[in-house]
Fold:
Amino acid sequence: MTETTHATGTAQLDPEEMMSRDEIEALQLKRLQHTVQYAYGRVPMYTKKFDDAGVHPSDLKKLDDLAKFPYTTKEDLRQTYPFGMFAVPMDQVARIHASSGTTGRPTVVGYTRQDLDDWAKLVARCMRLSGVKPGTMVHNAYGYGLFTGGQGAHAGAEKLGCTVIPISGGQTERQVQLIQDFQPETIMCTPTYLLTIHDAMVKAGVDPTSTSLKTAVLGAEPWTAEMRHELETKMNLNACDIYGLSEVMGPGVAGESFETKDGSHIWEDHFRPEIIDPFSDDILGDGEHGELVFTSLTKEALPIIRYRTHDLTRLLPGTARPGMRRMGRITGRSDDMIILRGVNLFPTQVEEIALRIPQLSPHFQLEITRPDRMDELTVKIERREEFTAEECVAAGRELGEQIKIHIGSSARIDIADPGTLARSSGKIRRIYDLRNKEQ
Ligand code: DLL
Structure:
């Protein structure tokens, strides 16, 4: 009998990964023409939207013609809740996921068998690019359930030929124990949950720099280069980004190379990205900062045309996969932007500044209050264990000054004792807007 493992065959790159930019664009045009026709013919909401905008699928003759088509928003998904944007009958929908949504109805997404196969393939691509090897063990601490993180990462890891530990989020002490017992090489979770796991290791007397973990594939929330440095040095591993969103697919829309660590490559054979000005809706050029918009090119159950992600970033030329463009780090979501007396501010900006100050930890939250008709920002941030409260007074002052210099707004700094702020078990909540509560 020939010896094979389920890992064989998946170590190879997909042929599309090595396509030139011209080949990718030719493929995109073909797939885009099909997708707009498919969506128009099958989803009444698109039929109406296109008709109202006076545009027809046959108007898409070159890639730039996509700009003639209307945007799709989360609100469109809400209005057609639950299944109104599905393009196939329910007996062809193999899986449903939903995003919880902080306000209003959740957004519901569906997948055909083919969609699930494509999804697994793209997550596997991301993992391979991040240095995960077939035949190795993956500790998957993304949440399982309606959230796309757990199941998405799981299927990708299996597709790559890994052994998956489907631990999900939470029960952190147990996670630490299983990492020691099973010796996985890879961990998949949010960056802030990896911090939580790190702290639990320290508490359990486990040295976080000498575990079996070599690679972390982190995403589902914005994180900075400073946070990468923090996690890599504290845990002695390679930390790479994975990006995605449920409305477009789930994790695996884009993934990062462990060799270049220069932002996630978008799988442009399956998604056509655009960057637009979130206020004027104008299309921006590569390299310019704006809102990321996606059109799916192969999805069957939920084709999505020009979906407004609210994620703010820019498109950069491909490196590790030269035919595919990369996305810069996501600064934040336009709906997570704090506007403080006219100044725009994102939690990632505070993370970036705080982590450059040695006494301060990555555990922080932003509180907005309005004590006296004027908005006020308080940054609550834990000091690192190694420093006393007295030693951190100057660090707090420095954080305030740096925020003023780099962001342009005044902030009160509240240095908290280690372990006192809420910890993440998935996507962390950074912003606490207490303004309405006080009025
Ligand atoms: O968070 C899918 C996912 C799961 C991605 C696991 C990566 C890993 P949603 O719950 O729909 O889906 O949230 C999507 O999360 O629009 C971004 O604002 C944010 N996000 C996801 N990945 C990243 C990332 C999943 N790598 C929303 N960097 C997106 C920054 C990210 N933000």
